[in-house]
Predict the structure.
Amino acid sequence: MEKKRTPLIALLLGLLAPGLGQLYCGRLLAALSFFLLAMSGWLAFWLTFGLGGSSLATALWVFALLAAAGWLGGMGHALLAASRAGDGYRIRWYNTPSVYLLAWLAGLVLPNWGLVRLVRGNLLTTVVLVADTMRPTLLPGDAVVLDLRAATRERLERGALVVVRDRHHGNELRVLRLVGLPGERVRLLADGLEIEGRKLPFQGLAEEAYARRGAGGDIEQRPVLRAECRLEGSSHQLLLERDPARRRTGDWQVGPGQVLLLGDNLTEAQALAARPLERSALMGKVLLVRFSRDPLTGRWRRERRRLAVH
């Protein structure tokens, strides 16, 4: 049986999945080539980000270029192949809608679903903040992208934002800042941090207030002092009680293989660590805010989308 190949159908099939337009035109080798080219973006992402230590931005660019080459190149080739097929194209056994659907599911949907799960379990994942402990750097409702690579955890420096699985609180996931390293004595004072006897003073910036839900469920304004502290060459902002006499303090001795984590909002009790945690409890480093939605108002914070944090 012979039937003309329609360029528009070939183009639309190529849009659905790389190589599907070539399958429609009977070009099996070309179909496989464009499919593999598009899927090679995943391999490149794993090699550059997972094994090569490249930045997320670089790895995403490489992934996008290869995926686009396979996808867009396949669409153009399918359009050309259908135009050249003529009226005498002989229908193959695989030129049926059911085979196209099966190829789409088995060649695109299932592999990409599995690869996304593989990446989310080993390289990247997303954690949504529910508490006020990281204001003003991070807000409740921020969904942060977390770097899970073992190499990243091994070279974490003081000041990094990390996610920890707190085994003392039911394996709760918490976003905190790395302050104390193994073997150090860290003191939190009303006017600054002291690490191994070295004073890191808080520099007050401005008085402000933020909205939060009170114990009775009503929204209330929490008055605070925005301040700045410098850790390892980089400054970050934090929140303090306006009255120095009300500020929380602490004194910790960090043991071997342990780290001390604190929140940026030192007016919240959960921002202070009860004890240093084992370094093995660290899941990874926070890279950026993926998206954000205010839990009090339901408003999407578009201005925080893809916001890099440090």
Summary: The longest strand covers residues 219-231. The chain has a mean pLDDT of 91.
